[in-house]
Write a structure and sequence with these properties.
Elements: E1 13-18, H1 23-37, E2 41-48, H2 63-80, E3 84-90, H3 99-112, E4 116-120, E5 126-127, E6 131-132, H4 135-151, H5 159-165, E7 174-178, E8 185-188, H6 193-201, H7 204-207, H8 210-218, E9 235-242
Parallel strand pairs: 1-2, 1-4, 2-3, 4-7
Antiparallel strand pairs: 5-6, 7-9, 8-9
Helix pairs in contact: 1-6, 2-6, 3-4
Bound molecules: zinc ion.
Length: 244
């Protein structure tokens, strides 16, 4: 289902909230690069540092991996034009949409006052007949949804945020959910696809050999919008909620 939401303005301030260091680039990298190039200020809040994202059996403790992945995140953020990266350093694979996580996210919404929040769709549990969604993705997505409304908006939610830190209630205007079960908005990211690929290549611990990865990404063009093979077109889809 795609409604006509083509007239959404480029946001001025964006808070991006995801579970793992490479999620923003994979799910929305083309759109984020586009916004950055149009002058938006982007802040990335990462709930974990991806301390379990490895198949290397010689690695028995994820702490060193987490530090490496934080460094990769900073490089990728620079490549995309994300100005600030914040790590909550929760444990990879153990996220749950509890009140503590909701509070963390609501606090950053009030602090950063974004007009758009970017996350993913909490309803996506699996896709097609062969892919399961990572539980951290939908746990964080659900906490984001609950933080945007009502926790960040109404001052009696986590009243200490206002009382002790002076963080006033804040209404987010736009919520963008990647990995959407029912997308209603598409962004043509052909012009920033290369930015997305190069940002992802910064995640060396995840994407493997750079040239082979670039090749796989080249094949991800959208067959509906690609009219001839010489000029592939790339698209990212979202569920967009207009909340204010
Ligand atoms: Zn992930």
């Amino acid at each position: 289902m795609l409604e006509n939401l083509t007239a959404i303005p480029v946001p001025e301030r964006v808070l991006i909230v995801y579970a793992h260091p490479d999620d923003a680039e994979f799910f929305a990298g083309g759109t984020l690069a586009k916004w950055a190039q149009a002058g938006a200020h982007l802040t990335l809040l990462l709930v974990t540092s991806g301390d379990k994202g490895s198949g290397d059996l010689t690695l028995l403790d994820g702490q060193q991996l987490a530090r490496q992945r934080e460094a990769e995140s900073h490089s990728a953020a620079r490549r995309l034009g994300i100005q600030e990266v914040i790590f909550l350093r929760g444990r990879d694979g153990e996220q749950y949409p509890n009140l503590a996580l909701r509070r963390h996210i609501a606090r950053f919404i009030r602090l950063k006052q974004p007009d758009a929040v970017m996350s993913s769709d909490p309803l996506l549990r699996y896709r097609d007949s062969s892919r399961a969604n990572h539980p951290d993705h939908y746990a964080v997505a659900e906490a984001v949804l609950n933080a945007v409304f009502p926790a960040a908006r109404d001052h009696l939610n986590f009243p200490e945020l206002f009382r002790d830190e002076g963080l006033a209630p804040y209404k987010v205007a736009w919520l963008y959910l990647a990995l959407a079960l029912e997308p209603n908005y598409r962004v043509d990211v052909t012009d920033t696809w290369q930015d997305k690929v190069e940002a992802l290549q910064c995640h060396a611990s995840q994407v493997g050999e750079p040239a082979a990865f670039a090749e796989r990404m080249r094949d991800r063009f959208d067959p509906i919008y690609t009219l001839d093979a010489e000029h592939p077109r790339y698209v990212e889809h979202f569920r967009v909620l207009k909340l204010a």
